[in-house]
Design goal:
The protein is an alpha+beta fold and 296 residues long. Helices cover 49% and strands 13% of the residues. It is built from 14 helices and 6 strands. Strand 2 and strand 3 form a beta hairpin. The longest helix is centred in the C-terminal third of the chain and has 18 residues, at 275-292. It binds a DNA duplex (13 and 12 nucleotides) through helix 6, helix 9, helix 11 and helix 12.
DNA sequence: TACCAGGTAAAAA
DNA sequence: TTTTTACATGGT
């Protein structure tokens, strides 16, 4: 067992990050300060255990049974936990705002967590198109159980190859529509063949990534923006037509009713270049209120 | 039981 | 070119 430590930039409350991430899942997770995550590192399946061991300055600890791969483990853990994100410029921008000011104070140290792989994020985006997050979550669970690799009580998200070797009918049996099954298989083929080089995206601009994704069948404007902000953590991206974001924008920044996509973007414009982070904080606040039963 | 839920591509007009 | 439609599952 290798034990590594990660120093995180700026304020970071990892337990809060976990609580928020879990609040988006339909399953009631046991409250635990430890994140256990099954990941693939260089074709090697392993479980990462991450927890916070110091708060100021923040330090995270990572445990993995993968000797000799320390730098890769460190890199993946930094990616998942978003250790390199500095929240302070966003907090300075939000501090004077009547709504985001108090909310950023209440959620001090909250960083959005990212899935270990961008391929997983693409599949997640497709599953979440049009149907509820809970329904999409159930479908992804079936995908993991049927195509993924079990390890230590967890499932690793299936690699692109696992999708390409299955038929569209196999994917439909997990609950995807025929359309979405075709989308997912098509994306997996593009990634597996190298036609869609996800490992090159990090060095590209938001707009470059967006236009690249829009060329892929099954990925529209919502999916591209969702991928940018949730999968890659690009802090200024907001899916303008996202139902959840339009609702919280209306609830906390408007008159209570869901806003139009244009109205939503207008409400977030003061937070440039952190509009996506502002949206995330509203969503997180809304989920935590709901979990506490304070959402009426 | 209906209806809506963090859209998209393709058919129809 | 613009508008309309089909689509899967799960919660309320």
């Amino acid at each position: 067992m290798t034990v590594l430590t990660i120093s995180s930039v700026g304020p970071h409350d990892f337990e809060l990050c976990l609580r928020v991430a879990r609040s988006f899942s339909p399953d009631p997770f046991p409250v635990s300060p430890v994140l256990r995550s099954a990941v693939r590192i260089k074709d090697h399946l392993t479980v990462l255990e991450m927890r916070q061991v110091r708060s100021d300055p923040p330090v995270l600890e990572v445990r993995a049974d993968l000797p000799g791969r320390k730098s890769e483990v460190m890199q993946v853990a930094r990616w998942i936990t978003f250790a390199d994100l500095d929240l302070r410029p966003f907090y300075r921008l939000a501090a004077s705002h009547s709504v985001l000011g108090p909310i950023t104070k209440a959620l001090h140290g909250l960083k959005p967590m990212r899935p270990a792989s961008l391929f997983e994020m693409l599949v997640t985006a497709i599953t979440e198109q049009q149907i509820s997050l809970a329904a999409a979550y159930r479908i992804r669970t079936r995908i993991m159980e049927r195509l993924g690799d079990p390890i230590d009580g967890l499932w690793a998200f299936p690699s692109p190859g696992r999708f390409t070797e299955r038929s569209v009918a196999d994917l439909m049996a997990c609950g995807l529509s025929q359309r979405k099954a075709e989308y997912v298989k098509g994306v997996a083929e593009k990634v597996a063949s190298g036609l869609l080089a996800l490992d090159r995206l990090e060095g590209m601009s938001d707009e470059e990534i967006r236009s690249l994704l829009l060329q892929v069948r099954g990925l529209g404007p919502w999916s591209a923006e969702y991928f940018l902000v949730r999968g890659m953590g690009r802090p200024d991206r907001v899916p303008a037509n996202d139902l959840g974001i339009r609702s919280v924008a209306g609830r906390y920044l408007g008159q209570g009713r869901r806003l139009s996509p244009e109205g939503t973007m207008k409400k977030f414009s003061p937070f440039r270049p952190y509009r996506g982070l502002a949206a995330f904080y509203l969503l997180a606040y809304g989920r935590l209120q709901k979990a506490l039963g304070n959402d009426r």
